[in-house]
Amino acid sequence: MSTEHDKNSSVNPAIHGVMQEGGTVPMRLPAGALDYLDRNQYISSMEVIGFYPSIKVDFFGDEHACLWTEGRRRMLAFQGGWIDITEPKAPTVIEEDGLAPFQSCIYNERLKKWIRIVAHQIPLTPGTVEYPRGKYHPEYRKQAASYAGFRGIKTYDVTNPEKPVLLNEFATGDTGNGVHLSFYDGGKYAYLACGWDDQLRMESSERVNSHGLMIVDMSDPAAVKEVSRWWVPGQRLEEEELYRSTYPFAGDQCSWTCNRTPCIVPKRVEDGGTVGYGGWGHFGFYVHDLSDIKNPKVYGKTAHPLEAIGGIPYHHVVPVVGASATEHPQLQNLVIALPEALEADCREPFHLPYVIDAKDPANPRIIGLFPRPMPHPDAPYKDFAMARGRFSSRVMQHWIAPGKAQPNLVAMSYLNAGIRLYDISEPTAPKEVAYFVPPRDGEISDYMSWRRGTTEAVFIEWDRRLIWVATHSGLYCLSTPFLGDPVLEPKKVEEWSVPHVNRTA
Which whole number is the average pLDDT over 10-30? Predict the structure, then answer.
């Protein structure tokens, strides 16, 4: 029976306290923030081999596999086409029209072809000067939701990269976000961060709806077929009661409630693998059970007990590769989990990247935190929160890369803090050993030109001991003593960081 107390509880200010809805991001500008963009460069234990301002690239492929190679020729996939890095001191570009930012590029051993997957989605709704609350401004939300373009993935045969052949357009639904990112390693299956309809919940102001996990059969890239779907319990809008009663961030209008890393699978399912790792924002880090590929489940999950609102706490997750039982036993079964900030100028709580021990799939454990990057002593700010733009990690080096990986080294792109190189030989206490912070681009009077920061992505050629860095102002090629002397001549790829992608003939 309803009581007078029940009727008044939604309007009585004494029940709600000082604010009915509470505070949310974006928070205030930090005291001491610069009123200009720092055009200086800062470097420690690294060397700039080349800077190519005419090659403006935000992302290298899909952050898992992006290198095409044949003989001594090497090319990085990016939104504009290909960057030929065969000659590190003279990279060139092959341009293509109509490509979305995120795309896989991997050799399919069974087909003897190079396959590219390009992900297509509706526009994001980031906070702007005009719309600081992103999609929570109805007219801004309507603009994004009215998107009439393709949503899904397109597959290409890029065996001849100068003449890509469109194989298939796999649509994932007319009302959802489409596909943000895929994971594909050349095997039977691809794993998609996919919004197949408009019923997947998103608290964050950056997206209209969210993504679940969709697994597709890539046996024939010209006829992609859906295999299965999975989402976090409570993620669907019809699961409102479960969502509200389970998650403390429910209703905060700023937490990221979906996957961003679709599912990275260290051992192919067709080869007996059953484990996949997923970064699901504020839902946490998930170890997916793929023993029945048509009915994905969960082995276990974890999240930091002090995880704060805002940003994407588990944005990019990558298993450590190359750790042998004899040389690096302490690095086996580890996963690196990176957050990403969404608000510029630290107008949300700061998050640190994690080292996760996934030895027991049912009980993954956070065992280490990466240190907070600090500015060079000569910088005109004492903390990157004051440097303008988004201060956070974004991604680490690509999982599939040429050469044998050094499992103790992790290179992270930090949006307004450059490239940071860490040694995780002691995984409970990662140590920063080198960094490079490029000059800032953009104009302070144009918020959208600097809100993200400058540094987006990093790709390591382990065999040539080169680090490629994508920034808004151009492409950098770096070296560091921690990789060894760089090789600046063309070189055939003899092996890959992930052994199961090596060619057998």
Answer: 76
